[in-house]
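Recap from last week: sequence in, structure out.
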Amino acid sequence: MKSNNKRVQSDIDIANLANMKPIEDIVNMTDLQAEEWEPHGKYKAKISLEVLERLQDQPNGKVILVTSINPTPAGEGKSTVTVGLGQALHKIGEQAIVALREPSLGPTMGLKGGASGGGHAQVMPMEEINLHFTGDIHAITTANNALSSFIDNHIYQGNTCEIDTRRVVWKRVVDLNDRALRQVMVGLGGVKQGVPREDGFMITVASEIMAILCLAEDLTDLRQRLGRIVVGYQANGTPVTVADIGVEGALTLLLKDALKPNLVQTLENTPAIIHGGPFANIAHGCNSLVATKVASKLADYVVTEAGFGADLGAEKFLNIKARMGGIDPQAVVVVATVRALKMHGGVSKDELKAENVEALKAGISNLKKHLETIQAFGLPFIVAINKFVTDSDAEIAFIESWCREHHVEVALTEVWEHGGEGGTDLANKLVQLLKEEQPRFQPLYDLEQPIEDKITTIAQKVYGARSVQFTKQAKVEIAEITNNGWSDLPICMAKTQYSLSDDPTLVGRPNDFDITVREVRPSVGAGFLVALTGTVLTMPGLPKQPAALQMDVDKQGRATGLF
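Predicted structure tokens:
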């Protein structure tokens, strides 16, 4: 079969033609009461956490996690399938809410693009969601940098906490890709300008405050978590926290509105909650706990996603978020595409349009490993083939046949092109799967295990690694973390998204590889330990041709070139 090369509309063109309903109409599709929401313009609203108190005795809706194979430059469309599945469940008469992360301006202006879905499976208003939205990320940026200011002022004004300026671990942030800010000097210019010291910037979505906002249960919990943030150490190694400096109240004040989840809609007017946006390769990669919990009280099905492949976002959703928040996931949808599987089979991006079943045979090993990972957590799953217009019948038939041979439920999904109607097969099969199979969800490790053992469990069971190598620095940091009483926290692995290994060039399903942990950083406020592997960076850089070069605005104020 020849590839289908018909011309298609861009995401922004489709979004601009959307028939959006006023936000009060979307609210009326839920059980929200008048005092439990507040409008932010015509198409957005903030949800009060009071709804969780009122509905605390109401049964929770079924939480469906959408994950994928390891991403490639060919695109997988995980967010698109998440949105499309929510629309499809509505099509078949089920009450569903989509729960997504908020896009960061870094990838929006850089290389990856936004995270609001695509084609006819988008969340709206797409333009606002991908830019400033309701200001939550800006609030997190402000709170993070306010803390940096408080730290430097504390040192300048006498340093009663005896912070060793060589061991200030808190960094400033900006929600952009800016490699020039990875390492900086602050306090230069003389005595009146502060105390000179080395500093650096991370992208906002890597901030511990982003993770805290996404894992906090309420304002009280938020304040307590902020107070536990370790900002630095004394010369003798004693940790200094935000509570020691006394500014946890001020930070909570800056974040009180940002803690409220955001209600929007899909192209087909399905309710969607978008809140929080930590990256999955350098953070825990899930939308906020309160957003997922609110959605589960307002709908029978919650369709949510976790960043990148199952080795990152799904692992962290299940080992960190679900465990920490008492979420009981019911099933997992694993998104795969013909294009990405061919790249995992060795095909270059410029050759993807040509039919190549042999490459699929080689690349499908990546999908197989991710399915084994979900099985290890005790959860039922279904494979969603996210169809692209260039896919051939033979290629799709091969994946479907492989799934049948391995007793894996599979659904061809065409939500990009057809919206909810293109996902009804997936929705129907998912509903049937939930009737037939009972989840036996269990995290992969016990929190009481030694840090090295927890990391090794993830590396071996999720990545398929042979072993884990810890650098001298990592061993020292693990000993310090243990001495400070933080060893019982879960692990948040910082790893490349492009490979099951810590080497982005090893695609498919690599064998006989080791994972190298170079640093282990405590995020005590968030409630996990970050293990950094490979060369993953907490401040990305822009590509040679950033997406921003194509962006503009017309005379009517509408965005152009935004995907």
